[in-house]
Amino acid sequence: GGRGALLKAGHGLLTGNVWVGAEKAVVIDPETPPGAAAGISDIVISDNVIVHSGGWHHNMPYSPQAGAVGIVRAGGPQQMAYGAYARISVVNNDFVDTRAVNLVITAVTDVVIANNRFNVTFPVPAGADGIDYGVRDSALINVAWASNVSFTGNVVTDPATRLGPWGRSCAYVDTATTSRVQLAGGLDCAVGDNNLEKHAL
Questions:
Q1: How far is CA 166 from CA 13, 98, 176, in A?
Q2: Is the preceding peptide bond at 159 cis, omega within 30 degrees of 0?
């Protein structure tokens, strides 16, 4: 349970770690009161292995901290607009056996999501982490309140680019709060014919 790494400052590299059973493996969140200054920038999260994360132990709808890796920033009843964070990269990580949403991207501009592998996704029904803040817990990746987000070379590896049986969508992008998201061709992912995703989120 708990968090593998909680980042409250910028200009850092988080690499070469193995987390097994962390409720959230990596959380970027200064945890300051809504409206307080909390600029965080220039972080690289790379070459980590994250196993059995993303909401196995608790359902936390009341917290914005969701996902195996979460870039989050609460502001009152919603995520803060993009610009709270800048220049964050999530590159070449292995996500294995994540219960719910793998990656939550909010309150940020200039994000690179590249060459990550998602293995054994949604083996059981997703929980409810972050839903009070609009997080779609049954999407592989959740993007909201973000700008300039690029995806390259990411793939669901087992089974053969298909989400697990309880995954509803490969990526949820909140178009009302998000701009300039380059997703096409950057995420090799499909939803199985028998998945529950056929009904819109």
A1: 33, 11, 26
A2: yes
Q: How far apart are CA 80 and CA 121, in angstroms?
A: 28
Strands 94-98 and 49-51: parallel
> 47-60 pLDDT, tens per residue?
999 998 876 666 77
What is the number of other CB atoms lying within 10 angstroms of the CB of residue 35? Answer: 9
- Both tokens of 67, joined, read 């996902």
Sort strands 69-71 and 3-7 into parallel, antiparallel or unpaired. unpaired
Give residue-wise pLDDT tens across range 104-134.
999 899 999 999 999 989 888 877 888 888 8
Cα dihedral 13→17→23→27 (10° resolution): 0
First-to-final CA distance of the chain? 28
Alpha-carbon dihedral 104, 106, 110, 115, rounded to 10 degrees: 0
57 vs 119: CA distance, rounded Å = 19
- Give DSSP secondary structure letters for 124-172: S----TTGGGT--TTEEEEEEEEEEEEEESEEEEETTTBPPTT--EEEE
